[in-house]
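hey can u check if this looks right to u? its 386 residues, i copy pasted from the old doc so theres a chance i mangled smth
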Amino acid sequence: MVVRRDPGEWYLGGTLPAFQGPSPYGWVQRIDPESLEPIAQSPNLPCGEHVWCGAILAHANGSIFSVNGCYLHRLDPVDLSVLAERRLPVDRSHNGLLVLADGSLVTKDLRLEGQGGTTLTRLDADSLELMGEPFVLPEGSMGRIAADITEEGVEFIYVPGTEHIWRLLRVRDEWEIDDWRPRYRDPNDSYGLAWDTCLSGGFCWLHDCGDIPPVRAIHGTEPNGRWSNPPNLSWRQSAPWRGAQRLIRIDLSDGSQVSHVAPFGKAAGGIIAPPVHVPSHQIAIAWDSINGGLAGLNDETLETLWQLPIRPTMQPVVYPESGEMVINDFTDQSSDDLVVIDLVSGDLVDRAETGSRVANGMFLSPGEDRDVFYCSTLTTARVSWG
């Protein structure tokens, strides 16, 4: 993904997708926002042999941070030299990286069903020293973590588990599991696991059906994503469950209030990204990457307002002022395009080819002037519209 530090300062982070052969590594570039050419590049960053997308962020202390595999790196913002390196306590791929209110960092490892509990690790952002003991959840977790602070100053972290959504609060340097722990998973095993959550409008929004065959393959091998002969890693394979893709809404003040809807109704749906809620327009956006389909739903009734026959896979960008959303559409011609959608009508306003023939679940990043940065396995692009 791409992140901005100060105006005009853009950073691109990724992983060498070496599923076999030479060792994988993480990398970060400082890029020219117009040409996308690198101005500076980090050295190859160790990842413990794991192949996964990791995360980067720009911190208030001025540094750029990269989590990749089982390593966390602090980088100089100018030349991207390594200022500090930490091998994390768990030898697995880590998914997500957050800054808490006190400036400390938190990340977690990625585990599927039957792989034990996920570990959250908190670190000092200057030294990368561990702060408190790593915390092990009762369940594994596939999706990235999200943070929120109440009006009373209570800081929560939300973790999508294999059965429940877990909410943790920090008491000094220790984590505690909150009483809010709603179950989202169907007990009949008709649906897959949740990816990331979207916290918006007093609700937790999520997609289930995310542990599709390539995800199961990558995280079912050690090191994650490494083989002598890689299996089929296409996300277009049939889903390993019979349920249709669902949008799930959970009340943040009452975890027993769980609502869900399957707007597309097609069996064996699947995704690799979280949904979006736009409170200014009272609309939630959901999609089915495997079967295809994008839908806008009334955020109160969960009634479908409109549908589009496109195939998104990525975390989109919403522009509430103009009522537009940018997301990808992987076409039947294997072209991964970016499309602009009118949130109210569902109309497809504009389309641009990125040049990519591969789609995945990466993050789109908003630029500074009605533009977005796009990242896929083999392609980066910057697209603007008028």
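The CA atoms of residues 112 and 220 lie 8 Å apart.
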